[in-house]
## 1
Amino acid sequence: MGSVISKAVKMPQGLSGVGMLKMKGLSVMGACAYSDIQTGRMYLQDHVLLAVLEGVYIVRYGDQEYTVRKNEMVLLHKGIVIEYKKYGEEDSRRVLDYMMFFLKDELLHEFMKISSLPSSESVSPVPVAVHSVNERLLSYIASLKPYFDEPEGIQDELIKLKMLELLFDILDADKGLLNQILQLRQQRRTSIVEVVEKNLLNPISLQDLAYLSGRSLSTFKREFRKIYNEPAIQWIRNRRLEKAKELLTHPGISITEVCMATGFENVSHFSKVWKKKYGVPPSAMRNRSASEKYIVEG
């Protein structure tokens, strides 16, 4: 599902053909269209609740895969790169209709305060699972549809209230999903080595790596240095450059594709750190590799 040399689009952000409601960092994305199979990769900057109204949306990260069908939903935590495949089914005229709710930690914190729920520490671990969307949640989603026709005319506070309404509806409708939401506020401790190795080539920040490991940023940096004997930023950058150097020996892969495949933000930043380490721009390394190959083959 998806190519190895492909860019993971950071979400939430606007995509062609997709409607967005945005307010001070809170976002809801909605799409409804006739759709054949589409695939891609996304880096989730926020927690995401994906609800499918028509069609199929398949999500994969690591060794986990979830197939979300009509009137189903799944909750995904932030700081991960997902591969997706989505499409409309023949029996519904190939209509693909879904919404993605991006849930920031600040929103979850406010919800916890006004709902008087227990802290996440008292909740037993709940695995990620696909849940049914009941009639109440379907009515809620339908109430958002008109807003996508005039997103600029919707007041910020209304979007915030609608996001809180979503969480209260889940509170009453699905205890399993609610427990997952409570757990989002505090990741369980995970091996730093495991988190770093799994996300090394993803466009992920140190803050996100710290979150995924269940540590504060300062603790993550301190423990990382004890393990690797090097500052986290420096070690990760060097590993990415080593992978980029390997990929540059393949003539069929462009410098832009190499940049995307090794976790760098953009080509200019990639070129800058490359030249700082190797003394020449990536294009010079590419030309030298091609010349050496020609000499060997000649």
## 2
Amino acid sequence: MKNDALGIVEARNNLGVLVARAAHRHEATRIRRSASERAVLISEEEYEELLRLRREREAADVVTAIAAAERGEVKLAGYDSAAALYADLDLPAPGERS
């Protein structure tokens, strides 16, 4: 993948070519809209692989956390209701406005 990001207008003007490169050559393209808004165009196959890897990492993290709890290394919190959990996390309960 190139280090330089294309501007959004240049990417838009070359979108067909960029999609073909991503899909057939697995060439990723960085695209910037502004200094803080950046994205990467990749093939669907690579995207699915990233999702698979993320799920595997998250599952491994859960297994590690469960093992730590079983060893008594982590104190688990119990909740009587979903509302209590949301309140503890300082989040609005489903259906409530934030």
